[in-house]
From TrEMBL, chain A:
Residues annotated as transmembrane: 303-334
Species for this entry: Flavobacterium fryxellicola
Ranges where the G domain occurs: 6-128
Keyword Acetylation: no
SUPFAM superfamilies to which the protein is assigned, alphabetical: P-loop containing nucleoside triphosphate hydrolases
Protein name, UniProt field: G domain-containing protein
GO molecular function, one term: GTP binding
CDD domains reported for this sequence: Ras_like_GTPase (cd00882)
UniProtKB/TrEMBL annotation, chain B:
Source organism per UniProt: Flavobacterium fryxellicola
PANTHER family documented for this protein: TRANSLATION INITIATION FACTOR IF-2 (PTHR42714:SF6), TRNA MODIFICATION GTPASE GTPBP3 (PTHR42714)
Identification of the protein by name: G domain-containing protein
GO process annotations (BP): tRNA methylation; tRNA wobble uridine modification
Keyword annotations: Membrane, Transmembrane, Transmembrane helix
Domain (G): residue spans on this chain: 27-146
InterPro entries in the cross-refs: GTP-bd (IPR006073), P-loop_NTPase (IPR027417)
Pfam families tied to this protein: MMR_HSR1
Transmembrane segments: 303-327
Cellular compartments per GO CC: cytoplasm
Xref: CDD domains: Ras_like_GTPase
GO MF terms, alphabetically ordered: GTP binding
């Protein structure tokens, strides 16, 4: 899916669909009143904002009595938005609070915290902001959510007042929101990238043993002819098996690093292609990583260098770890060698140690 | 004859007794967070002088407190969050059912179901609750709050959720009161909760009308009318007392009965700025009242010699009734005047009315007495 992905969430009736239409300047999402309008789920709307393709997920609003299903839907929605494919990500989350009710609910704070924990760096939009005349709601939101990323918006031109006094609200605030999305994009990306990279590194580490051990067994079997009289593998052979195992781990880790690097490159490309909305009064600077950004990315611990990818336990540590206990073994079993099962066990423990994983059986 | 001090004490005592014995209606107030519950309560009953929360914690989810002479069962607003809502719903329904089984005093007498008109939504939750409340057969009113910032189209759609066959525009512009109330706490006459107040008074059993009328601050005429019926009750009471001619020297008995009436009238107006318990001594009205009976009868005897000669200086039933009526009406008229000034924010006038109260009362009494007597 092409385009910059935005998700709009909030309580029923805060004006999520109206905000979407205001951002696209088109009546795409069905808006209305009376009952909750947007059906259950997260609905994608694609259009352009100032010539750039943008996909907006309009969500069904949270409502009393339905928060459990909402939360489940929300978690399902987030689940497949953190793959290594940056195009699938949610790039910016817009969290709506309405100045109409002027209330902040614990549940909203909980969801906001969850979004933050997902490193999604949400922007808060105060909808129907014309009703927050004394700015008291703005201040309350700032205090309760501990954020400065708050944009006040009025999405619809509407007449208000059922009595003698009629008022008309004018639309305003979408240029500020677009500006905020642009500012927010790079911050969000950095945070999100670290999360997804760490998640990927962890996944690779977890899978390490099960992927590599069958290969280790093949290596051992290929060297069977060098067994001694007891049927044990000779010390000299063990050494070469360990060297081959080391290379195996090394290439596995290199693969991890390569894929992360590719992700970073894709991200660079993606952001430079999608990030800029050319707006009349909005800065024309293209999104690209400047030197500072670049260095901060390169400094991320396990990113581009092999040692880095593996974190504190590097390749060299692995080698000595492998040789350490085995070195000791070799001296004990100098004449006896080591059985295949025993060697497999030792190697498995060492690989797990390399990835800092404590085997479940222990 | 009572001394002024004695009389003031009697008033204070009577007032304390009334305060204790007054039958208070129970009003259940339902509404989500942000519907503006407390603003509406303040608009109808005035800002709370002292909000006394019920100490009993067993009804969590419902805060019960006395506001002036009404008991408000203020539901904790239903909000987002997993199990909170079912608990909330069970709490309300359970509370109503529990009270239904109990005695009359503890019944829910009125339900106000508040929905924010400007939220543009009536959630399924509200619809369910609405249907459930209907089935109880209790006087329940849907109150759309914040209508000053609501939108006409939205309102129409919201109303359709609860009353599918109703058209908001025609229902609202009609002179008849629709089955719901459209309110705001802004100063917009069209959106005043006055209709809700009147509806509530009409739905309450007679015994509870007094407390509600006394507590609300939106309808001064309702207070005036309520006072009239109190005066009538007491006048009739005096007629009974007067059946056997009361010797002139027994006028204080009459006054003792009138104290009850006057106290009830004063409390009806329930002005927050004035300490009702000591109203009589503050205004010096006590002294005036203690002399009124006597002077009124005295002047009466001069004008209508027939009575004087026929009964020989005793107050007969009709005269007793007239005195009581004039006292009550004088008090009612003056209290209304002060209340109107108070509600208009004319505190200067309120202060001057209070400091000149005895004089005004005396004049008003004489006027009412003459009027009644001439009939």
């Amino acid at each position: 899916m092409e385009g910059y992905n935005l998700a709009i969430i909030g309580k029923s009736g805060v004006g999520k669909s109206s905000l979407l239409n205001y951002l696209f300047n088109k009546e795409l999402a069905v808006t209305g009143s009376g009952k909750p309008v947007t059906k259950q789920g997260f609905h994608i709307f694609s259009d352009s904002i100032a010539g750039k393709k943008v996909n907006i997920y309009d969500s069904w609003g949270m409502e009393p009595g339905k928060t459990d299903i909402w939360l489940k839907d929300f978690n399902d929605f987030l689940k497949d938005k953190k793959s290594l494919n940056i195009k699938e990500w949610i790039h910016t989350v817009v969290f709506c609070l309405s100045a109409e009710g002027k209330r902040i609910e614990d549940f909203e704070k909980k969801i906001f915290a969850q979004i933050k924990a997902e490193h999604l760096n949400p922007i808060i939009v105060i909808t129907k902001a014309d009703l927050d005349k004394d700015n008291s709601f703005y201040e309350a939101v700032k205090r309760e959510f501990m954020t400065d990323q708050i944009i006040e918006i009025c999405s619809v031109k509407k007449q208000f007042g059922l009595g003698f006094n009629k008022k008309v609200s004018e639309r305003y605030g979408n240029d500020n929101l677009i500006k905020a999305i642009i500012d927010n994009g790079s911050k969000s990306f950095k945070n999100r990238f670290i999360l997804i990279k760490n998640q990927f590194v962890k996944q690779r580490a977890n899978e390490g043993v099960s992927i590599m051990m069958p290969k280790v067994e093949i290596i051992i079997d290929a060297n069977k002819e060098s067994s001694n009289l007891l049927g044990n593998i000779k010390d000299s052979t063990v050494k070469s098996i360990l060297e081959k195992t080391h290379k195996l781990v090394q290439s596995y880790d290199k693969e991890t690093a390569t894929r992360i690097e590719k992700l970073l490159q894709e991200a660079n490309l993606f952001y430079s292609n999608h990030f800029l909305f050319v707006m009349g009064d909005i800065s024309q600077k293209r999104f690209k990583m400047d030197n500072e950004d670049k260095s901060s990315f390169l400094l991320l611990p396990p990113l581009l260098s092999m040692g880095g990818v593996l974190g504190s336990i590097g390749i060299i540590t692995l080698f000595s770890a492998l040789l350490g206990p085995l070195g000791l073994l070799i001296s004990i079993f100098i004449n006896k060698g080591i059985s295949k099962e025993n060697l497999l066990d030792k190697i498995e423990i060492s690989i797990n140690e390399h990835y800092n994983i404590i085997p479940k059986s222990v | 004859m009572f001394s002024e001090k004695e009389l003031n004490e009697k008033f204070s005592k009577e007032y304390a007794k009334l305060e204790k014995e007054i039958d208070k209606p129970n009003i259940l107030i339902i509404g989500g967070t942000g519907v503006g519950k407390s603003s509406l309560i303040n608009k109808i009953f005035g800002k709370e002088v002292s909000k006394v929360s019920n100490v009993k914690p067993e009804t969590r989810g419902i805060n019960t407190y006395t506001h002036k002479d009404v008991v408000l069962l203020d539901t904790e607003g239903f909000e987002l969050g997993s199990d909170k809502n079912t608990i909330f719903e069970e709490k309300i329904i359970a509370e109503i059912e529990k009270r239904k089984k109990g005695d009359e005093k503890n019944q829910i007498h009125l339900i106000w179901h508040l929905i924010s008109a400007s939220s543009e939504r009536v959630t399924d939750y509200d619809v369910n609750l609405f249907n459930k409340l209907e089935s109880f057969g209790l006087p329940a009113a849907v109150v759309f709050t914040k209508s000053d910032i609501a939108n006409q189209d939205s309102m129409n759609n919201m109303v359709k959720r609860l009353y599918p066959h109703m058209d908001f525009d025609s229902a609202f512009s009609n002179n008849e009161i629709p089955p719901f109330f459209v309110c705001s706490t802004e100063d917009d006459e069209m959106l005043s909760p006055l209709n809700l107040v009147n509806w509530s008074i009409s739905k309450l059993p007679d015994a509870l009308k007094y407390a509600f009328t006394a507590s609300q601050i939106l309808n001064c005429e309702a207070k005036f009318d309520q006072a009239k019926s109190i005066i009538n009750q007491h006048t009739m009471g005096n007629v009974v007392v007067g059946f056997s001619p009361i010797p002139f020297s027994d006028a204080p008995i009459l006054i003792a009965s009138q104290i009850g009436m006057l106290t009830r009238i004063i409390r009806l107006y329930n002005l927050a700025e004035i300490n009702m318990g000591s109203f009589m001594s503050t205004t010096g009205a006590g002294l005036v009242i203690s002399n009124l009976g006597k002077s009124a009868v005295g002047s009466l005897l001069k004008f209508i010699p027939v009575i004087g000669t026929a009964i020989g200086g005793a107050i007969n039933a009709a005269v007793a009734g007239t005195i009581t009526f004039a006292m009550g009406t004088a008090m009612n008229v003056l209290m209304r005047k002060i209340t109107i000034d108070y509600l208009n924010g004319d505190m200067k006038r309120v202060q001057s009315d209070i400091s000149n109260f005895s004089e005004m009362f005396k004049n008003q009494f004489n006027e009412e007495f003459k009027k009644k007597n001439n009939k």
